[in-house]
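Human:
Take a look at this sequence-structure pair and walk me through the tokens.
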Amino acid sequence: MAASFHRATPHANRSESLSQCAAAAVARPRPRQHWSMNLRRAISSKLVSVLLFAVMSALVRHVGETVPLGQVVFFRSAFAIIPVMVIYAWRGELGAALRTGRPLGHVTRGLIAVVSMFLNFAALARLPLVDATAISFAAPFITVALAALVLKEPVRAYRWSAVMVGFGGVLVMLWPYLDVGALVAAGSTASTIGAACAVTAAFTNAGATIQTRRLTNSETTASIVFYFSLICTVAGLASLPFAWHAPSATELTALISIGVIGGLSHIFLTESYRYAPASVVAPFDYVALLWAFFFGYMLFGEIPTRYVYAGAAIVAGSGLFVIWRERPRRLKGQAQRKML
């Protein structure tokens, strides 16, 4: 039987996966004895979530050349509410989703997340799929820095080391986009603009995660997700009078699918952290790079450069190193609590 989660632990997750899903990524897991019985379910749910996010990103990439960003944001948010609210109603958590004591906190997070979503989608429209996905993995490292500066959380030396190495990996991936003169001579700076959007989105994603951590002190995961979706829907709707593209049947199907798939991916993400600790589930985020490579090559004929391969390996290695170092401390803490 599904349980309701009212509090959360400080855990950062990746990018858009970061926008709507930050609340899910920090959800408090069940007791340890339940993890062993559901480890397979947790990992399979996480893998399904990663696949769905990759499909959604590919669809955003597909419509991004013709459909205005605000219109994509509107469909992404409005149609994501449907599966999310259905599952919350089924679990009896609909009341918790609507109830809040911190409306201004939700507005703050929603506004940051709206900017993040616009930037993420702008990057997907201008960059190869795997490039945009790989750069988005900078967000967890930025979250670590912001957690120390804003939330005053203690950050150990190895975490700061991983942050610096991770940023080095991002710079490696960005290297081809830094030669603006050559791109101007070639007649296009779209990729440089896309790279700038991707990096800025990583910062706003991290900011949204920090605000999520603040909200989880008093708000339910359900309310955080609902008000995020609602605010993003309103923001997308407000942009429609300024830029509207009458979608074809194919484009309309893709736009609706972006929203529904985004909502479903959030549900599977929530389930993955419901049945296993974050240190077990989080490493599977990096499977997104494989899906981005697959969809980018099969659908758009995109082949990653050596810079992306090298930078992505550095970023993934840094992230996995932090998870590996954190796992013994978490297990020790759990064992101590079990003895009390």
